[in-house]
Design brief:
Chain lengths: ~210, ~600
């Protein structure tokens, strides 16, 4: 109590008004402000500075951290953008490659190409179907020799995609380089031979390997 | 005084300052509020790039999922004529002439041709910045062109269409023009299923290297891929059938021909061959008139194959049976004045209905057909699907010509001629459907060419109806089938179309072709239609050859029927028949 009175001049206006209010009104509310005010002033003044400093440092550090993180994040994202761009380009190229491969696969699996290859290997179709029943070994139908009467030439049902594709019988032997023939080797100007069509070795319109003359 | 001046000065300064601030505020409001949208758009436009997301047009696949038509990426190669000149590659200066030769070699042009493209464009417009070198190169070529590193050559990506099997089913699939518009066949009629929608996205790019700024991508519209169209066609069988047809058509010098193979129980078309057929990869290689499918689009007078229909109708109406007796003379004049004769001179023959079909007698058939009323017959024709397009809805599909009794077009001669397939026209598909009805116990199944359309999200649409309709009674259909088996065994072509081990029902036709002026020409349309195995019908094969100049009889079409039918039986592993066919007498 005496301590509080002694320090009264330092206390702001509202606290001095609170003290006189205590005298005329002794009931409950009076002691409460005193207790609050009394210990406050002297330590508060010293304590206040420290928390402020601490908060300021924390805030500044926080902002700095946020800036640094933001900077790093930006760097990472823009790194990512370049990586994305590179991968997208790679993806595009691979898609193209896949498409090229699929297209050439579709070409060689077309019925025209298969039939032409089968015919080149000497296969003929038999128009007389016969079945052997496995359960009792019965022969169903009347077996007859294949006479190859069915149409076999692949040119009847055109497919411009397989034009010029070498047949299986025309493929160069494995290991043998698809080198130019003797005639082509002596001819230094390869373009010249391509310009004048040679019936024996027609120029390839596609990127397929040149058939070896047989 | 001094104080006043000072005050005035500060007032001036204040006013000036306020005015200046006012100007700034007005400007600020103008930029930030009034013209904000316009300016924002402008700035975005300067930094942003809009690119198209290509939607992929749907595939067309056969019954087994084999791809018949698909979309691929192609590139149009363009160059800037005004910028064309020498450039530096890896520190070496490449002269224009060498560049032209290198570029030309990759796209199949000579160096001079490339030079001409450049000089022509510059002659037309000295500031020309764009000229096509070649259109539609594939990825492999594009890569090679990229490697040349020519700064004034620009590839442009386009969506293109490729048909891996070439002319196999080219008549049905049709083709897509270079502008991406479907022009014929199923490509056109199924546009709704196949069509894709392109999307669009925009993003902001780095000014230096054009890399997209992260998070700046705005998708304005998403791309929508087309659906996959599945056909009932089997591409392997289709190929064989086209091959067989083309070989015989060429051997007999036919103008055109069609073969239709239909599944009896379902009405599915498993092969529809046309000769000639377009290769959709090379549309210009085929004459304009041959680019469609005559099987759907051209009707003709079917001739004697039609007698099977008249016989089935008469038996269903209860006015005839396989043993009904008629006397068939060479020529017969009916009370209404109609004059009918057979193709070859002969004396009066005592034929059963079976015999009438074996001998293919017009006079005999007209007498049996006349036991029905005109309206009765007309109703049967309609129920068999004549005079209307099939359920397929092929582009420009022909309905055929079917006159109504009582109209002027249905004259006295037509009344009888229609009983043996003259005086009305049908398409090859309609004829196949007639035989399908007879083979299927008198129940006609809707003709199917498309199995369905599968959207990218997996939903299936365009599924055709499978609801059959009864046309004639099962007994009438069975009797008709028995008669046709006798025709197969005993008609004059029996040696030619024989497939040992199988019971087959078939009938030939040799119809006069119109000359285009209301009369008949010297050309014939020769045909064979039939089904196998007759004891449990599985497949209908209907063959037509128009004007085979080297062999003007149905003997020209019989080998096609035999080869196609045996291929079909082999393909679908149809077991040979056990019991022999019931024998029916041909005469009395």
């Amino acid at each position: 109590m005496s301590d509080s009175l002694a320090r009264a001049p330092y206390v702001p206006v509202w606290s001095s008004s609170a003290i006189p209010a205590a005298a005329p009104e002794p009931p409950a509310p009076a002691p409460a402000p005193r207790i609050r005010i009394a210990p406050a002033p002297s330590p508060r003044a010293t304590r206040r500075t420290r928390p402020r400093m601490f908060y300021a440092i924390t805030a500044c550090a926080g902002i700095a951290v946020i800036f640094i993180v933001k900077l790093l994040l930006s760097v990472a994202i823009s790194e990512g953008a370049y990586e994305t761009a590179t991968l997208e380009t790679a993806n595009k190229n691979l898609t193209r490659a896949a498409q090229t491969a699929t297209e050439s696969l579709d070409r060689v699996r077309s019925p025209q190409y298969l039939a032409a290859n089968a015919a080149a290997l000497g296969m003929v179709s038999n128009t007389h179907p016969v079945y052997l029943r496995l359960s009792d070994g019965a022969v169903l139908g009347q077996p007859q020799r294949a006479d190859g009467s069915g149409a076999s030439s692949g040119a009847l049902v055109p497919n411009s995609l397989v034009t010029g594709a070498p047949l299986v019988t025309q493929q160069p032997a494995p290991g043998a380089a698809p080198a130019p023939t003797a005639a082509g080797a002596t001819d230094t100007a390869a373009a010249a031979t391509a310009a004048t069509p040679d019936p024996a070795a027609p120029p390839e319109p596609t990127a397929l390997p040149t058939p070896v003359t047989h | 005084m001094n104080q006043r001046t000072t005050r005035r000065r500060s007032v001036f300064a204040m006013i000036a300052l306020l005015a200046l601030i006012g100007v700034f505020v007005v400007r600020l409001v103008d930029i930030q509020v009034v013209r904000a949208d316009e300016l924002n758009a402008k700035s975005l436009q300067a930094r942003s790039t809009t690119s198209q997301i290509l939607g992929t047009r749907g595939q067309i696949v056969d019954a087994n999922g084999e791809v018949l038509a698909q979309s691929v990426l192609r590139w149009d190669i363009a160059l800037s004529p005004k910028k064309a000149g020498e450039f530096e590659r890896d520190g070496v200066t490449i002269p224009l002439k060498q560049t032209e030769a290198e570029l030309g070699a990759l796209v199949g042009l000579s160096g001079d041709a490339v030079a001409k493209i450049i000089s022509d464009a510059l002659a037309a417009d000295p500031k020309s910045d764009f000229a096509y070198v070649v259109k539609g190169v594939d990825a492999a070529t594009l890569e090679k062109i990229d490697k040349l590193g020519i700064p004034w050559v620009v590839p442009q990506r386009i969506a293109s269409r490729t048909y891996p099997d070439g002319a196999v089913a080219g008549n049905l699939i049709g083709f897509v023009g270079s502008d991406g518009k479907a022009q014929a066949g199923l490509e056109r009629s199924q546009q709704k299923c196949l069509a894709a929608k392109d999307g669009e996205e925009s993003y902001q790019t780095d000014a230096v290297d054009g890399v997209a700024i992260p998070g700046s991508t705005v998708q304005k519209a998403s791309a929508k891929d087309g659906g996959t169209l599945k056909l009932t066609i089997d591409s392997d069988l289709q190929f064989s059938v086209q091959q067989i047809l083309a070989a015989q058509a060429q051997a007999t010098g036919a103008a055109w021909g069609t073969v239709v193979v239909q599944e009896v129980k379902t009405g599915k078309l498993v092969a529809v061959a046309d000769y000639p057929t377009v290769d959709p990869n090379n549309v210009n290689g085929t004459a304009d008139a041959d680019r469609g499918s005559r099987a759907f689009q051209a009707s003709y007078e079917p001739g004697s194959t039609f007698k099977a229909l008249t016989a089935a109708s008469a038996m269903d109406a209860g006015v005839a049976n396989p043993l009904s007796q008629v006397v068939a003379p060479y020529r017969i004049i009916f009370p209404n004045g109609a004059n009918i004769n057979d193709s070859e001179r002969h004396g009066d023959e005592d034929l059963t209905l079976t015999g009438v079909l074996i001998e293919s007698s017009n006079t005999g058939m007209s007498q049996i057909g006349a036991l029905m009323t005109d309206d009765q017959r007309y109703d049967y024709y309609k129920k068999f699907g004549l005079g209307a397009t099939s359920e397929v809805g092929f582009p420009a599909e022909d309905t055929g010509i079917l006159h109504k009794p009582g109209t002027d077009a249905w004259d006295n001669q037509t009344k009888y001629a229609t009983m043996f397939g003259q005086g009305l026209t049908t398409t090859a598909v309609q004829m196949a459907s007639v035989y399908q009805t007879i083979a299927n116990g008198g129940v006609r199944m809707p003709v199917q060419l498309v199995e369905g359309c599968t959207a990218p999200d997996g939903t299936v649409s365009h599924v055709p109806s499978t609801q059959g309709t009864r046309v004639v009674s099962a007994a009438a259909a069975k009797s008709d089938s028995d008669i046709l088996e006798m025709v197969y065994q005993k008609a004059w072509l029996s040696k030619i179309w024989n497939i040992p081990g199988y019971r087959i029902a078939s009938k030939t036709g040799t119809a006069q072709m119109p000359d285009g002026n209301g009369g008949y020409s010297h050309g014939y349309l020769v045909s064979v239609a039939g089904f196998a195995p007759a004891d449990d019908p599985q497949y209908v094969v209907s063959v037509s050859l128009a004007d085979p100049v080297n062999n003007n009889t149905s003997a020209a079409s019989a080998p096609i029927f035999r080869d196609v039918m045996s291929q079909v039986l082999k393909k679908y592993r149809v077991v040979p028949s056990g019991a022999p066919a019931p024998d029916l007498p041909a005469d009395w």
